[in-house]
Amino acid sequence: MVTATTKIVNPQGMHMRPAQLFVNTMAKYKSDVTIVFNGKSINAKSIMHLMAACIKQGSEIEIQCCGEQEAEALQAAVELVESGLGE
Questions:
Q1: Domain for residue 34, yes or no?
Q2: In percent, how much of the chain has pLDDT > 90?
Q3: Catalytic pick from 9, 12, 15, 32?
Q4: Looking at the domain assignment, is residue 54 inside a domain?
Q5: What is the domain range of residue 51?
Q6: CB–CB of 8/57 below 8 Å?
Q7: Is it the case that residue 71 has pLDDT exceeding 90?
């Protein structure tokens, strides 16, 4: 398992559009992707779980990737979050 901590930078946080972009990007990788936020583990390949987490701008999250392609998935996830999730 590989992990990284980062912050949500886009003004609206993890709302529908960025959550969908994140899920679609993570679906390309053969690894489990989890976001740890406020002590809860969230399946980062599920748009419903990401939306329900209410992750706002400035929130610190930990991204965990486990399995085949874990390093590539983690790098893509961190780059996506730090670039503003397409916004």
A1: yes
A2: 86
A3: 15
A4: yes
A5: 2-82
A6: yes
A7: yes
Confidence of residue 56 (pLDDT cuts 50, 70, 90): very high
> Is residue 49 flagged as an active site residue?
no
The closest alpha carbon to 13, from 58, 78, 77, 71, belongs to: 58
Q: How far apart are CA 73 and CA 87, in angstroms?
A: 20
Whole-angstrom Cα distance, residue 77 to residue 44?
Answer: 10
Would you say residue 87 lies in a domain?
Answer: no
The enclosing domain of 39 has a CATH number of 3.30.1340.10
What is the domain count for the chain? Answer: 1
Distances (CA, A) of 32 to 1, 57, 84: 9, 24, 22
